[in-house]
Specification:
The structure is a homodimer.
Chain A (H helix, E strand, L loop, with lengths): L4 E8 L3 H14 L1 E4 L2 E6 L1 H11 L9 E7 L5 E3 L12
Antiparallel strand pairs in A: 1-3, 1-4, 2-3
GO biological process, one term (chains A, B): defense response to virus
EC number (chains A, B): 3.1.-.-
GO molecular function (chains A, B): hydrolase activity; metal ion binding; RNA endonuclease activity
Chain lengths: ~90, ~90
């Protein structure tokens, strides 16, 4: 099975129709972290397909869509979840 | 000089007063990538200070704020910037 890597996809899409389309597309293959931010595990081929599908959703003048590669483990702090006095290290 | 690492900070903050406070705080030390998403290079001490400052801005019931550690290089695709037919690899 192709090696999968972890990615974060975040976007600012102005037009509501394009926004819904991107959101629907991502909801099928990724986990919603917060509004307009998704985490996904993708092979290289899946990453290319995702780019091809998302490109028509983006107006390069008005919108932003960034894909970040993430570390697989120990690379995330969720500030809303842990106790107030416990600072986290990643 | 302390070794700095790259982080992504993204948030969903419901209350406008808390939202402005977090945005102001982050604008001082990080680069705005898009609405409610910032990139920052931080030492461990700076990461701890940032958590301490951001915690009062977060209502753990209503809000989300996630800090991701990022790779330093070759780890980002900006779909709105490059040519339509050019798929990027990271």
């Amino acid at each position: 099975m192709a090696d999968k890597r972890k990615f974060l996809i975040c976007y600012d899409i102005v037009d509501s129709k394009r926004l819904r389309r991107a959101h629907r597309l991502l909801s099928d293959i990724a986990m919603s972290v917060q509004y307009s931010v998704f985490e996904a595990e993708l092979s290289n081929a899946e990453l290319q397909q995702l780019q091809e599908k998302l490109m028509p959703c983006i107006d390069s003048e008005a919108d932003k869509l960034t894909i970040y590669r993430l570390f697989k483990t120990n690379a995330k702090i969720d500030l809303a979840v842990h106790d107030d006095d416990e600072l986290l290290y990643i």
